[in-house]
Design goal:
The protein has 320 residues and is an alpha/beta fold. It is built from eleven helices and eight strands. The chain binds zinc ion.
Length: 320
Amino acid sequence: MPRPDFPRTIVEFQRWFPDDEACAGYLFESRWPDGFRCPRCGHGHGWPVSKRRVLWECAACHRQTSLTAGTVLHKTHTALHLWFWAAYLMSTPTPGLSAVQLQRQLGLRRYETAWMMLHKLRRAMVNPDREPLTGEVEVDECFVGGREAGLRGGRARGEKALVVVGVEVRGAGSGRARMAVVEDATANCLTGFVRDNVAAGATVHTDAWQGYRPLNRLGYQHQPRSQRAARARGEDIEEILPRVHRAISNLKSWLQGTHRGVSSEQLPVYLDEYVFRFNRRRTPMAAFQTLLGLQSQQPPTTYRQIIARRQPVPAPDLTG
Ligand SMILES: [Zn+2]
């Protein structure tokens, strides 16, 4: 199904989506690129029955259809154009933004509104039909700290989460990435990540850690490289697995810089966000449509589902 084009600059964005009516028009184009079509009786004529032009009624059977059904915008009390801005800001490659920043940028009265918008958009970042990494893939793991990350010393490892990262080798650059929190650095967890995220038969580059040793047996072309051997050869340590190390370092500075650290409970959600943007860094506006739910019809997340998975809303960090 052809979808409407999307704006490519911030100026275009502003011109396209100045108000709720314009946004509703865009939703209409996304849902019915060939004009209104009643989902119940198939009739081709209908009219808007709400001021926002979000609810449409069939001229034949009078069934009412919401343009936001199945999208993250469904039943929202927040203005559509604010949602569009939030999705736009979230889909630009770097650096994403915190709830405090979103609240400021959109002039929202309540921090909780901004927080909930971000978390609903993040839910749309888990792409259910994503393809596994292919070709050559670098894999490594790292510890990511909790809220105290960045402070040095005296911190139990138990507060940190172990994150495994895989990045496709694409010439001198990087392709797509995957990240996941794992229990520990055992072969079970590490090869489990590879099996979940990398296509069978792919070439997997890792360091010499024993947890990766079973990969050959599991049907991968395993290419372990020892840091010690590299050092002995006078090679730059950073040059071992350069793509995955770059991704890890960018992830850490993003978590620290934009979000001031993230609790372990919420870390998987933030990893999804990071990977979502990383994998769409060349197509940010397609990311924008995905976030609003205009492509995949993800079941919308309720506030209750979100808060059930987290601790109380933190006080806004006004230094950010
Ligand atoms: Zn109808």
